[in-house]
Amino acid sequence: MATHSPNKVNQEQHLRNIRVKVINEYTQYRKMVEEMHQDITHKYNDYQASVSRWLSKGNLADKIISQCPIEKLPVLPDLADGIRTKEQRHAKATLSARQNYLNGMIKPCDNAPESLSDEYQKLTSEVADRFYELDKYLIHSALSGLTKDDYNAIFFPRSHHTSRVF
C-alpha cells in the first residue's frame, strides 16, 4: 500500500518548487543589493576624494603660488624694498601675487594656470558632479520610503487639496 497519496506528493513538490523559486528570487535580490552597495561605496569614495582635493579660492591661489619660484613672482617695487629683509620681500611678493591672481589680473608665474577662477570652478564642479551621482541614491531612497499619500502630495499637489481663500 502506498504511504503517500498523489495529492500529497503533488503538494510537496509544489512546496519545493515554491521554496526554490523564493530562494532564487532572494539570491537575485541579494546580488542586486550587493551591486548597489558597491556602486554607492564607489560613488561615495569618489565624492570624498573630490572633497579632499577641493580648496577655497584663496587656498588654491596659495597652493599654486607656493609652486612658483620666489624671484618670478610679480611685485611692484617700492621705496621700502631696500630696507626689507629677504623674508619681508618674499612675504610682500607672495601677498601681491596672491591678490593679483585672485583678482584675475596677473598669473604668479609661467607654469601657473592662466585662470585661477577656471581652476577653482573645475574643483568645485568635480565635487558637485560626484555628489550628484551619490545624491541619486539618496533621493531614490527618500522617495521609496514615502507613503502613497505623501508621494501624491509631492508629485500631484493640486489633486489632493482644495484652494482656500483667506
Describe the structure.
This protein has 166 residues and is mainly α. 67% of the residues lie in helices and 0% in strands. It has five helices and no strands. It has helices at 6-53, 57-66, 86-102, 116-144, 148-155. Helix 1 packs antiparallel against helix 4. The longest helix is centred in the N-terminal third of the chain and has 48 residues, at 6-53. The chain starts with 5 loop residues before the first helix and ends in an 11-residue tail after the last helix.
Shape descriptor reads: elongated
Give the oligomeric state of the chains in this entry, treating copies of one chain as homo and distinct chains as hetero.
single chain
Mean pLDDT: 89
**What is the H/E order?**
HHHHH
Low-confidence stretches: none
Class by SSE composition:
mainly alpha
How many beta-strand runs? 0
The end-to-end distance, rounded to whole angstroms, is 84 Å
Main sheet attributes: strand count, strand direction, barrel closure: none
Strand content: under 5%
Radius of gyration: 32 Å
**Continuous helix count:** 5
What is the helix fraction of residues, given as a range? 55-70%
